[in-house]
Design goal:
Strand order of the largest sheet: 1-2
Shape: elongated
Oligomer: single chain
CATH architecture: Orthogonal Bundle
Structural class: mainly alpha
Strand content: under 5%
Helix content: over 70%
Number of domains: 1
Order of helices and strands: HHEHEHH
Amino acid sequence: MGILREFREFAVKGSVVDLAVGVIIGAAFNKIVDSLVKDVIMPLVSVVTGDLDFSSKFVVLGRIPEGVPRNLPDLVKAGVPVFAWGSFVTVVVNFLILAFVIFLMVQQINRLRHRHAQSAAAASAAAPPSAPPEDIVLLREIRDSLRK
């Protein structure tokens, strides 16, 4: 029974819930980045490099059976070993874009935290120090009377 209680406490902690939300948003964000790479960036790269589409670039590493078309999806479906370097390039570009966007997001969050910390420090510096609690005052009086 104790382990279930510990698991429940662990599962409902704020950090675990935040992590779950982050994973879900990350999965959705990954689809956006995939589309950006596949539908926007790679076609632009293709135009600049002379109609080069990386996603369809591959090297056949085995024998192609009779009647199998020489395109990546059909070769993979037929079980032919294929070195799909174009797909790898697309995934690397995808990763670099995702890493750069996350870097920009973290940079902005850090700037906002820094501004918030500065404004909080300025507010606390402008506020006069509050009077110590009554028990502290009494303890100080006792201490001072003992010194005499």
